[in-house]
Design a protein that fits this description.
387 residues; alpha+beta; 6-stranded mixed sheet; 13 helices; 19 strands; 26% strand; globular; PreATP-grasp_dom_sf; metal-binding; ligase
Amino acid sequence: MKTIGVLFGGKSVEHEVSVITGVQVMENLSKDYCVVPIYVKKDGQWLGGESLKDFKSFKNQDFSQAYPVYFKAGIPSLFHLQRQKGGLLKGDQLVEEERKIDCIINALHGTNGEDGSMQGLLEQWSVAYTGCQVPGSVLGMDKVLMKERFSHCGIQQVAYTWFKARDWKENRDQVMEKIEKIGYPLMVKPSTLGSSIGISKVKEEKDLEAAVDLALSYDKKVVIEHAVDHLRELNISVLGANGSYDLSPIEEPKSINDLLTFDEKYIHSNNKAGGKTSGKGGRNIVVPEEKVLEAIHTMARSAMDAIDGAGVVRIDFMMEGDQVYLNEINTQPGSMAFYLWEEAGLSFKDLLDRIIDIAEEKKRERDQIIYSYESNLFQRSGFGSKL
């Protein structure tokens, strides 16, 4: 029986969203697996224990039955210290317990879990893990890098610019010139956040400063985009790796606002962990006309190739008239975008099986790479303590 660690929580403003995803994953994994919860608290501490499979532990913030866990680089196992009672002549002792991990399902969202940092840590751990690897995770999380990469690959996007906090403080006139070339209305976004956090739609210049300040409170880089009028948002999920991809049906989220808000995505859907939470607003599966469908499919595959993506992702598109623009790729979609795959006849359980298979294949690929070079440099050189 394979042991699957489910990693969720995290040091991120998307912590709660990740908890929902993690609990959903644990409830839907095949009974053929031994499931090990790994909860990352907001302070970065890792906890384990069976109580973490129950959403009530998080709702009540009761972690009394959980215990600290840790790993050792190069050993694909999870460790914790277990108190062992001693006899009459010997006191209690702490004994290290080890549990081998075959694969990690990464259910973290946002900073420190989706941005390549955790992926690098998992590679040092020498364990298979789901989702994109380090480069794809970095590109998928940082909107500036993502947009530059997609532009290089010829993928159609709306007009945009970006700047750093330092630029806004020291060279605001130059920044304003770049923004004015795009023209109002605008979307103002932190570069490295998801779930619509810190995003504003700006229709007039008088509202720009407050929107930029909000974005800069979450990040040190800001992306400014042309805001599409009469927007239609179309989302698709892609499953696979190495150029072999399956594409889900397409959804058109519905919003009562100018942009889909955090509350619409996660609160007003009136769902709960373990249920059918989609991580998006009102679900509405659509079949676009042939030309639009072909454009979305082509750009979705190109985007996955551009970041060397793996596992399951969600890609968001925007339509203005008959023009289709790629908005962004989400390499760690809420609830693993299972709701889109169910529409294609793939159950949540089977989706998780697929992403585990992909994770193990990517691990085999990494294991074939040579990481050392036998140069005998120490014996051949005359270097002392000073180089």
